[in-house]
Amino acid sequence: MDNTYDIVIIGGGAVGCAIARELSKYRLKVAVAEKEPDVACGTSGRNSAVVHAGFNNKPDSLMAKFCVEGNLHFEEYCQELDVPYFKTGKLLVAFDKNDLETLQGLYRQGERNGCKGLFMLTAEELDRKAPYVKGIGAMFSSNTAIINPFLYTIALAENAHENGVEFLFNHELTGVNKEGDSYKLFFNNGLKETITARYVINSAGLYSDKVSQLFGINKYHIYPCRGQYLILDKRISDLIDIPVYPAPRKGIGGLGIHVTPTSDGTVILGPSAEYIDDCDDYESTRDVIDRLLDEASQLIPDIKRKYVIGQYTGIRSKQAPEAEGGFRDFTICAEEGTHLINLIGIESPGLTSSIPIARHVCSLVNQWIPLTETGTFIGKRKAPMRFRDLPDSEKERLINQCPEYGEVVCRCEGVTKKEIKDAIENPLGTVTIAGIKNRTRCMTGRCQGGVCLANLTEILINEYGYKPEDIVYRSEESKYYTGRVK
Ligand SMILES: Cc1cc2nc3c(=O)[nH]c(=O)nc-3n(C[C@H](O)[C@H](O)[C@H](O)COP(=O)(O)OP(=O)(O)OC[C@H]3O[C@@H](n4cnc5c(N)ncnc54)[C@H](O)[C@@H]3O)c2cc1C
User: Fold this and answer.
1) Which of the listed residues 368, 398, 428 is the one where a domain comes to its end?
2) How buried is residue 250: exposed, middle or buried, by Cβ count under 10 Å (0-12/13-18/19+)?
3) Exposed/middle/buried for residue 131 (C-beta within 10 Å: 0-12, 13-18, 19+)
4) Does the model's pTM come out above 0.85?
5) How many domains does the chain have?
6) How far is the CA of 337 from the centre of ligand 1 (A)?
7) How far does the centroid of ligand 1 lie from the alpha carbon of residue 204, in Å?
């Protein structure tokens, strides 16, 4: 195997995968090195999944520029990549006069940033749009949308891979040696292999400061800020069909606890904003769960504890410490005297901005290596079939063609055996339980895997020859089975 690449991207999140896809348009040998066994294992799989409009970002910042550009084109990106996109719009609700002033300020900021589709609503107009919210007015953003961040990131990665990018999973960058004009990269994957890269793009999210340090650049520091979420059962989704946010209040370091429908029919509450010491501390805590429920039910009184079916946590990669609070723009730069592009502090709206960020990174690469198109890039991708969304006649036809479409593995989400097998045989060649879950929604329903995990295990053992001890949730550190009990 030839281990020499023109460009190695560190990190397989939405941003790293978007960069990989953009670079696959050009005559370059590119690899993505990701420390986990799959893409979207970091912040890209742990967020609100909202395609933001860009009114919330400081005028003239990279955040505002890339967010507005991403928002205006996200539907096209999703069509090309064959991933679901729902233009729900979004409401920001005012509960008092100060909130109304804040919203008017945001409206003006949005106009200045070039956002489209912003409207101020009276209490009556708000009541007509969302009778379950009791505010004195609101701002409505018609261009806000929701997506599935796993499917989006997977689609970017698969399309990059189809166009020639290599994905190196379980490759955590731990050391770098400069050798002439290139870098020798060392990984802690026990393979004792090294990779040579002419140029490196650091898209390592929460660890981007540490990766930068490996190249001798110590000026960055990431302050992790945890955001906990609760997941509500689909029973409430008929009621809530649009993301609802409170008017932002100063000093909370986020957009406030919001209530957001997901692209899969559940509803999420969150996120909290808690500065923590450890970038891997995804713990969910009782006090925050209580607070999320309390604040969400102030926003929408119909929200009750009995609807909660799960939780997850994301961590923001803040460049400013808690004491400083406030705004810091994305840092995206080619470091002087090196062959390294650093992406630091890619917090919200990083998902929305991922493709514009990737295009900007390409323009930086172009200053080093004049980019020449391959002429063979195919940007259109076909996603695996989603059986449950099909009309009955089509379901019947498919079952006749392939009886595994008739075997339901996950009852809550209606996922069939054929879809599970498609996910196991995915183009990136990665197999974890979390990966199958993210690709199919198996285990995400009301039973949270209580029934379907056993079915998945059986398929992996009987049809793919797995030993139970080899089955992991997300990585080697999260094995499901350690041995027989009897
Ligand atoms: C609570 C929360 C809510 C959010 N909501 C939204 C939203 O609604 N809309 C929106 O637009 N944005 C949102 N964001 C922001 C968005 O999720 C991020 O900006 C985006 O996902 C960042 O992507 P990334 O690829 O830079 O980072 P990541 O997804 O974190 O990817 C970095 C990758 O690098 C890997 N890595 C780290 N170190 C190494 C190493 N040494 N070697 C190899 N690999 C390494 C990690 O495993 C990881 O997979 C939210 C963020 C949070 C935390």
Assistant:
1) 368
2) exposed
3) exposed
4) yes
5) 3
6) 27
7) 8
